[in-house]
Amino acid sequence: MYNVIFLVIILLCFAGVIFIVSRKFPQLTNLDVENLPEELEAKKKKELLSKRLAEKARRMRVIWSKRLWPLVKIWGVLQLKFRIYVGKVERLWHHEQTLKNKQKRKSTASTANARVAAESLAQQGEQWLQNKDYEQAEELFIEAIKLDVKCQPAYRGLCYTYLAKGQLAEAKETFQFLLQLNPHDDVAIVKLGEICENQGQLEEAIGYFQRAVLENDNLSTRFYHLAELLLKVKQPETAQEAVVQAVELEPKNPKYLDLLIEIAIICGNAALAEKSYQELRLVNPENKKLAEFKEKIEKI
């Protein structure tokens, strides 16, 4: 019962509140908050502050532009001067390169002319050398070398001129210089070996002939002569290897087979001696040393 009474009272109060609010609601909706005096004053202050800041920024730009303008002018002048300087440097560099190229072309042309002239003198020297006019040949070869210090034909001709005159020391020195220009000149190497042999320098001669067969291993005569030199200095085993190479290049050469048999007997190599003996017997059956070789081989 009491609950019903309280519920009725609450409903009545709630209805009264709704009635009051509904009467005031049109006034609340018509209220313009932005037009209140406080809001208008705040808005005016904000606009005024923005104008003051913009004006101050403008004045500062004017002041700094006046202060910096001299610097801007100086910078422009400096840039102009720098561009002018760079242009001068480029022109000077181009001029210098042009001069260098001209000098290089002149030098190349001069070198080429000197080389041609040197070769011509060397050819003339060869003719005088063949005619056995060694003094004239020597003079022409030396003149050629003066024009071109790398003229190999002139050095070679001078070497043979000294050999013809019997000047072994001068020939040897010139051949050695020729090898400095061309270390693979096997002909010059052999000539140096021959000069050393004539001077009694057998070890040095062997060194040159070994070097020569390394440069060119297709010439049997070099192997054969190397074997002879090695035999003279009591190196029969190495001599045997050298003469075997000579026989391989010329298997039917009786002189090579003869030396091979002798060295094989010295080294006690019965098999090689017998094989070489049979080959020599087929190649040169009239050889008077066959009986002697046969006897020595049987005693091994």
N-to-C SSE string, H for helix and E for strand: HHHHHHHHHHHH
Into which percentage range does the β-strand content fall? under 5%
Biggest pleated-sheet summary:
none
Radius of gyration: 57 Å
Low-confidence blocks of residues = 27-34
Number of distinct beta strands: 0
Spatial separation of the terminal alpha carbons: 157 Å
Number of helices: 12
C-alpha geometry: elongated
What kind of assembly state do the chains in view correspond to? single chain
**Helical content band:** over 70%
Mean pLDDT: 81
Structural class given helices, strands, pairing? mainly alpha
Descriptive report:
There is one protein chain. With 300 residues, the protein is mainly α. The chain has a domain at 240-300. Helix content is 85%, strand content 0%. α2 (37-130) runs parallel beside α4 (152-164), α3 packs antiparallel against α4 (152-164) and α9 packs antiparallel against α10. It is elongated. The N and C termini lie far apart (157 Å).
State the gist of this model.
This protein has 300 residues and is mostly helical.
Please name the defining characteristics of this protein.
300 residues, mainly alpha
Give the SSE map.
Blueprint lengths: L1 H28 L7 H94 L3 H14 L4 H13 L3 H14 L4 H13 L3 H14 L4 H13 L3 H14 L4 H14 L2 H14 L6 H9 L2
